[in-house]
């Protein structure tokens, strides 16, 4: 197998465009900022207000709390307990974990099953993003596919318990927990009076308020397969979440073919949607994270769904370097990489 290529540790999949703060003239134009590794990625919080450093610390504490509850790789986490008791008994969980799984089920309905957190058994077969990445046999995938069905998640809101109906099932919150963690950080910062900040959890970005001197934040969307810091376009936002899922984030190559980490829950294989990436602009990061998996649906269906959702916009980048945007982004998306072309539909 050719060398495993992974972008887990890439610092910013979506990043604040360089120079965006150069027009700020007040004393807070330079943020208090920190970066830590959590949730399998680099997480950065940058605050442009006069607040004590403990606010940053509280933000990272919120991230760690989500990780400890929802990471599938942490033994004893609530998700690990649910998976270990699949087909056996319900597990009582925290309000956070119950909410995230409840939301995951909701977005699975919205996305017609193309987003499914019970894809855990298939994720384990591929192990993309680790040094154990491989191509499973068709027989292995066929054996595990019956275990993938979000409708077999049994939620008991009264007792706040969760159970997986069948033995062998497992939940993987890699497609939604990071978004929730970003939202939790935003809650912490706003509670402490923060009015201008950027939260970036490995590509799940929340822009709090406006730039310190006024005006929207300018967010750059990473150019697929180019070095970090090269972007294909920019949008302007305030009080929004901007989340991207792309094939260039985690993948490996074998015999000249690329195998990426965005798996199709109906086939058990990496989604073959002829897309490089999908970026969602939404009110919350948890919604943006989950909805970015419309990547699996492909351009036509994904764009149609995005257009139908209130307060949601999207950017689709195809593998032939064409960019399609939802109608609400017209006038608010600028191509900056000449290799890419903005299309109209």
From TrEMBL:
It holds the Pfam family ApbE. It comes from the Bacteria. It comes from Thermoanaerobacter italicus (strain DSM 9252 / Ab9). It is a lipid-anchor. Belongs to the ApbE family. Its main location: membrane. Magnesium. Can also use manganese. This is FAD:protein FMN transferase.
């Amino acid at each position: 197998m050719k060398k495993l290529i992974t972008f887990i540790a890439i610092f910013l999949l979506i990043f604040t465009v360089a120079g965006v703060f150069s027009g700020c003239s007040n004393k807070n134009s330079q943020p208090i900022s920190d970066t830590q590794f959590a949730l399998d990625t680099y997480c950065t919080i940058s605050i442009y207000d006069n607040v004590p450093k403990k606010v940053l610390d509280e933000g990272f504490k919120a991230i760690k709390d989500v990780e400890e509850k929802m990471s599938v790789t942490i033994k004893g986490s609530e998700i690990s307990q649910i998976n270990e008791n699949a087909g056996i008994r319900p597990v009582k969980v925290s309000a956070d974990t119950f909410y995230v799984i409840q939301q995951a089920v909701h977005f699975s309905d919205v996305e017609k099953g193309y987003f499914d957190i019970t894809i855990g058994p298939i994720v384990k077969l591929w192990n993309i993003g680790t040094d154990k990445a491989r191509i499973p046999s068709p027989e292995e995938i066929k054996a595990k596919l019956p275990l993938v069905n979000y409708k077999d998640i049994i939620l008991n809101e009264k007792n706040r318990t969760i159970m997986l109906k069948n033995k062998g099932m497992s939940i993987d919150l890699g497609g939604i927990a990071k978004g929730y963690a970003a939202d939790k950080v935003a809650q912490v910062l706003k509670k402490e009076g923060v009015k201008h900040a950027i939260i970036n959890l490995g590509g799940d970005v929340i822009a709090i308020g406006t730039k310190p001197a006024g005006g929207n934040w300018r967010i750059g969307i990473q150019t697929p397969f180019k070095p970090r810091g090269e972007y294909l376009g920019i949008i302007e936002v305030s009080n929004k979440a901007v989340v991207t899922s792309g094939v260039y984030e985690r993948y490996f190559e074998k015999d000249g073919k690329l195998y990426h980490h965005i798996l199709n829950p109906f086939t058990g294989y990496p989604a073959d949607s002829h897309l490089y990436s999908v970026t969602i602009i939404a009110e919350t990061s948890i919604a943006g994270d989950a909805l970015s998996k419309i990547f699996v649906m492909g351009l036509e269906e994904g764009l149609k769904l995005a257009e139908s959702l209130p307060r949601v916009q999207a950017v689709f980048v195809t593998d032939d370097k064409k960019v399609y945007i939802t109608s609400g982004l017209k006038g608010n998306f600028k191509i900056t990489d000449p290799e890419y072309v903005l299309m109209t539909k």
